[in-house]
Records
---
Amino acid sequence: TEDQNGKDEL
Amino acid sequence: MNIFRFSGDMTHLMSVLVLLLKIHTIKSCAGISLKTQELYALVFLARYLDIVTNFISLYNTIMKLIFLGSSFMIVWYIRRHRIVRRSYDKEHDTFRHLFLVLPCFILALLINERSAFKEIMWTFSLYLEAVAILPQLVLLQRTKNIDNLTGQYVFFLGAYRALYICNWIYRYFTEPHYVHWITWISGLVQTLLYADFFYYYFNSWKNNVKLQLPA
């Protein structure tokens, strides 16, 4: 579920 | 998700809970910078624009809702709550929002990964988060007696940043194509701002004396 862009971070 | 990232999120959550605990139970916001809290509300608003359009995980969405909700709730408490607002240290919390918001916005327009609206707002939120703690640190310096909860609040925030750096190092070595200069540099700047605070925090803890930052 973690996306390539690092946009899965808060 | 790795352990650093998760621990970082949890210390971030702890910082918010400590602050809400202080405000809600003691009904006091003494030593808390409204400016910093308003900047955080703006940070989350700008960063989580994709909350409804881009689903990553339930964890992610819930955490976003918590950070958005709590930041606005804290601002509401300090500005509007009949009792809490009386303890707000207006005289010492004099930092101007615009001095931080404007340069961050201009920088986001100039330096970003893609010049799309959401991307620029996301970059703006990273730059702004890096410096949003400044009004709080200035206020701590001006405050003679920093109470334990306020000290812990800033400590947890700093710990969250430090853990995120560990998370980036871990991801860099374990995930292909994980390179994010903008996130890293603004995150590093943000963490360095806590260095001074950490130094005095650990000293006060080691020597068992009340935390006080030199003017």
---
Amino acid sequence: CWLLPRSKPLMYGEVQSPEYPQPYPPNLEQRWDLSVPDGYQIQLTFTHMDIEASASCYYDFLTVLYGERVLGRFCGNENSADGHHPGDQPILSPGNRLTLIFKTDNSNPERQNNVGFSAYYQAIDIDECSAATPGDSSGPLCDQICLNTLGSFLCTCHHGYKLHSDQRTCTLSCVGGVFNEAEGTLFSPGYPVSPPHAISCQYIISLQPGFIVSLNFSDNFQIESVDTEQGPVCLYHWLQVTVPDRDPMKLCGTTSPGVIVTNSNTVTLDYHTDDDGLSRGWSLEYSTHRVRCPLPGSIAKGRVTPILAAYFYRDYIYVRCDQGYKLMMDGEEIESFSTMCQSNGHWHLPLPECHIIDCGKPESLLNGKVDFLSGSDNQYHSVVQYSCNEPFYAPLGHENVNYTCDADRKWRSDNNIHVLPTCLPVCGRPTRSLSSTSYQR
Amino acid sequence: IIGGSSAPADTIPWQVLVNVNGRGGGMVIADRWIMTAAHVLTRYGDPPPTSSVQIHMGRTDIQTLPTPLSVASIHIHPGYNNSDGLNYNNDIALIKLQEVVTFRASIMPLCLPPQDAAYHTGTMGMVSGFGITDEGNKRILTNMLKYVHIPVVDQQVCSQTFAKMKQQGNNLIPHLTDNMFCAGVPEGKKDSCQGDSGSAYAIEENSQFWAAGIVSWGVECGKKGKYGVYTKVANYVDWVQKTMQEN
């Protein structure tokens, strides 16, 4: 005999009676030991079963066992009156093992018609956190928090505690907790049950600049205070809220502070109790919102988009000028403009201005002239008229042409042409007539 | 001009004085083009160098002429061949100026003949020039631009006139062709003359003058029964336009 290497358990498989789908032989006793990895259980589903039917499955049968425990003894088929057919329901093993034993006797009057069975099995993950471990009545798997994983589970602890080396129990340890999610829940160790005495916990809520942390304490707040002539003071027990560049705030008593808007992206909470007294502790939900920037205002001859009721960190706004106007910033024309609300609550660029465009000095016309009919400084919508130096030149087409300063900064005629007109010479028409100089006949 | 009058300023703004070792005339037809008679430019044989051609325009008094305009090129009609001095057929030429002229009251082009140009006998035309004029019974070379109105003469009448001259023994008379027409009055005393060659014979139609003829040749000036002969411009419109376009 050779020692075979232990093969890795399968995650699924198939089991069939001997010679299936041909009729099974008599005098048979065959056993299958199925297993899947630890942390999984086996789900067995029959696709077909046709075993000689008998009351209590006396002659031929298939037995399904989990260890010594019989999960089922089956025979017959879907239509037989006798026997015990599993139907469509799968059989779920409590653990990662399952045994099938198929037994047949030596007399089988309908042998030709009984083909046995066919089934498949698959591994199903066990949710150890919600299911009681088989045969274990020692209590919850984890001291505080149980996380199911495929084939296993993990224990973890609330803030203020750390996981013991047994990977199941939690011991008090509440320094150095950093919370950088946008929202979350914090509470003192053991809350709402009184924790051990003389604890010193620190909670740091730290988000990137541009976000503001708000603390919302639950009503159930109890930190021992000491009454003095000046009123209650947080002498031995306290929760200190520290925001950068501001004086720390010590909280105690039985009145919940409610909502505290810190106006900071970083908040440090230090919870301290001494050897005496009684503090049940506190809990809070923290949330964050983005820093707000001032409303950008309006722009003459332009518009700001999008129009929002309020603008927050990382919001962008864009400025577009009305047709015929251009974006100007610091005396320079810019092609486009956008600005972002910064983490400090200021826009990273001030708003530009919209100045009216101009088409430049209209091109001069050979043997003609250009006159302004309306507008000034060659500005948008100014109208000029090109005319020829009459009576010596006449416009091609015989009409003077008006050009308007268009939004694309070109002078265009009413016919949408931006080519200058042509002045053609006038021939044979002296300005002074010979006949007018002499009246003699 | 015989029997004419002095032209006031700006009344014949197409008049050009073309001087090539002698006085001749021309007419402005475009802002860089002068039309004249071929013989004005080839009076002494081959076309002269452009530098020796002086062009003046815009003045009616030769004594106040400004700096002449520079000539870019000369284009003699290819059919002009007057080696014997008696063949004025195709007596037409173009002068291209180096610089563009801006038109004004004193300088304006004369229109080329309209497509349906007709030379009806009796139609009055106006011929002008700085050529020989009359003062009493004397012929003098004037410095003032002169003009005279004379009618188009029937081509057959004109032809007979020159035939009669030949019968009288004067064989040195040029041939009258269909590229020429005559203008003048039978009683004489109104005519173009030497120095007017190349100038325009202009017909006014609908208050607009067009170039009907170019002063070309004649036998004596202003004599009774003799007419002046003019190059018939209408026959050359295609050549004129082609030459200007190609150059």
---
Amino acid sequence: SPIAPPADEDRESIAVNYLTQLYGLPNQSNSDTEKRSSGMSLRLKEMQQFFRLKVTGKLDEETLDVMKKPRCGVPDVAA
Amino acid sequence: YSTFQGDYKWKKHDLTYRIENYTPDMSVAEVDDSIKRALQLWADVTPLRFTRLYRGTADIMISFGVGDHQDGYPFDGPNGLLAHAFPPFEGIGGDAHFDDDEKFFYRSPQGYNLFLVAAHEFGHSLGLEHSRDPGALMYPTYIHRDVDTFVLPKDDVDGIQSLYGPNPDETGPRPTPPVTPNKCDPKLVLDAVTMLRGEIMFFKDSFFWRSSPHRGTVEQHLITGFWPEIPGHIDAAFESPLEDKVFIIKGEKVWALYGYEMAQGYPKSLSMFRLPRKVQKVDAVLYDETSYKILFFVNKQIYSYNEEQRRLEKGYPKPVEVVFPGMKGKVTAAFQYQGFNYLFSGSKMFEFGAYNKLRRVLNNNYFLPC
């Protein structure tokens, strides 16, 4: 693609926004790093499970691709 | 499908809706019609009936807004989140909001079709959550579909009828709700199989599975979600490494993909492969990388096209059984992988090794683990 892939912080913010709005990721500002990354990994696994992606808990290309697709704003779990 | 936990369903079947405002993307009449048809989809398969109100509060209040539109769930600008709706309960329950930073369309395949987005949101307004079925209307991501031929998929029909039951006023036969093919179905018969730059693509009805052997993942998608121009129920597909293209064949038409993009100048005719005029449909195609020959399976015969010399080979057509001894049934799909030829017939896959010697007969989901 001629468009440079999103830099890491873009990737991260895309993922945090997506998981916060659609997978109930708690607000990240005040939690410590450890708690934050485990919360993120848990929600990533839920999302990967929902979309039948490889469940790794890590933000890989396939997972980011799905996050960038246009979609409905109703959460996929615990709506 | 899934429904909202708790008893989130309307306690009545006669519901009202009101369109509070409009998007500048479409005419008032187009918005009205899109909304009406989107509600009718659900009415057709349930006892639910929808009456439009022009003032006051309706069960389903429909509006267009941007960014923070005062419901606590702000939109996010163009693309991303397109709309949302609330399950059945008092007040905001049932309401549907559309992000007017999106470009909504009435018919064109570009942008977002309002009828499709609204039909999905009204599924939520009636008590459905998102479905994991990639063919379902209630799947979370937007997938363009042909709105003229759109039939509510079975997964959605089952979901809404689990809440409200069937339409008691059913009059006459309805189009069969499409079922998403299941790779665990032992009777699965594939339409076509091809390589695509190292991935294996399995086509069935309106869907394809995309298998990445090196990543160990298999995804299922609607064909139209990737290539709106390509129809479902294709006859055959093959990859030409020489042209770095995948050719997709249905009837006498041939489309071409360049990677995941549609190649320009297609569809072309099957005659591009010099097949006799009487051949108006092929059952399968196998590309032999060792000889640059393209084998066309037509009923129980094979035509061989030499891609380098761009001409049909002499001495063909030949019976399939002469070229692939032991291959008795009709071949419905074929591909070559790591030097072996795989021919699909019914729910079986025949593996041929060097000199087209039959090695194994496998289940056709050998490459599509259940």
